[in-house]
Specification:
eight-stranded parallel beta sheet; two-stranded antiparallel sheet; 9 helices
Length: 295
């Protein structure tokens, strides 16, 4: 699939629901998210994934107005493709989870380009290996096949491309079934999610990457990015590039103390440096739109 998607796509996962304790550079407000996105675009990114946050506290924000303001500001600052969260495990009802997308898409100025859909039901309790304990022990992310159909149908109906988020081999197999049923259509935007702390995901290692990537549906144009929740993604970039993959990185997943207190743009620059060493050019937002047939 390298021939179809030969340039490296960098997606910035700018904030998730991450606090500023480990790195104060995590953007919260729409203004901060937009400024961060513009800096990342200049550094070589093509997509920005963000979670709406309360500007002062950083608490999750679910109102359409906050999402819309962030998207308008991003679009006013740069041409990155926009990929907002659906709230994931923090919004248990699939109907409510998907409802943000048609509300945003009703205005062409705030319509997202992509929207992530987690193709999994899993225990999402973080494991702390140093303290040898789970941070919590009752956090379950559950979505039925019917619920996933509804979410994906809502997203596609709003003129937005679903991004299939794959946590494990079961997620990759479910993607294959959804492709056969026409629930998801090619070309596919996907994300391979490794994790240092979520044990339901594949581990953040080359073995974890290969075990998941080996089960991607064959013969289908899939633009897949790799991320590593709770861990350093940088050591895996060359392996992802070798397999024809792309990169999803950001302070939302990991603070990167190895680099001091970097910004998201600093991370993008480091990915770009590694990509150049591997002989891989960077894709522009316009080229990603062409790859995924996003107007």
């Amino acid at each position: 699939m390298l021939a179809a998607f030969d340039k490296l796509v960098i997606e910035v996962r700018c904030n998730e629901y991450t606090s500023r304790r480990a790195n104060p550079r995590v953007p919260f407000s729409p203004e901060e998210i937009a400024a961060d996105a513009a800096a990342c675009r200049e550094a070589g990114a093509a997509i920005v994934h963000f979670h709406a946050r309360e500007p002062r506290t950083g608490a999750p924000a679910y109102d359409v107005a906050t999402y819309a303001e962030a998207i308008r500001r991003i679009r006013g600052a740069c041409d990155l493709l926009v990929n907002p969260t659906l709230g994931a495990v923090t919004v248990p009802d699939p109907k409510q989870r998907a409802s943000i997308i048609p509300a945003l898409a009703a205005d062409p100025g705030t319509r997202p380009d992509l929207a992530p859909v987690d193709l999994a039901s899993l225990n999402i309790d973080p494991w702390d290996p140093e303290k040898r304990r789970f941070v919590v022990e009752d956090l379950v992310y559950a979505t039925s096949v019917a619920g996933l159909r509804e979410i994906i149908g809502t997203i596609r109906g709003a003129g937005v491309l679903p991004q299939a988020v794959l946590w494990n081999v079961g997620s990759a197999r479910l993607l294959g079934a959804f492709l056969e049923l026409g629930v998801i259509a090619a070309p596919v935007a996907a994300q391979l999610t490794l994790s240092a702390s979520i044990l339901s995901a594949h581990p953040g290692s080359v073995h974890g990457l290969n075990a998941l990537a080996d089960f991607l549906p064959a013969g289908i144009p899939i633009l897949w990015t790799l991320n590593n929740g709770g861990g350093n993604l940088l050591p895996l970039i060359a392996a992802a590039i070798e397999r024809g993959g792309h990169i999803a990185i950001g302070l939302g997943d990991y603070a990167y103390p190895e680099l001091g207190q970097p910004t998201n743009a600093d991370l993008v620059r480091e990915v770009a440096r590694i990509a150049r060493g591997c002989g891989r050019a960077l894709a522009t937002p316009k080229e990603v739109r062409q790859m995924l047939r996003i107007s």
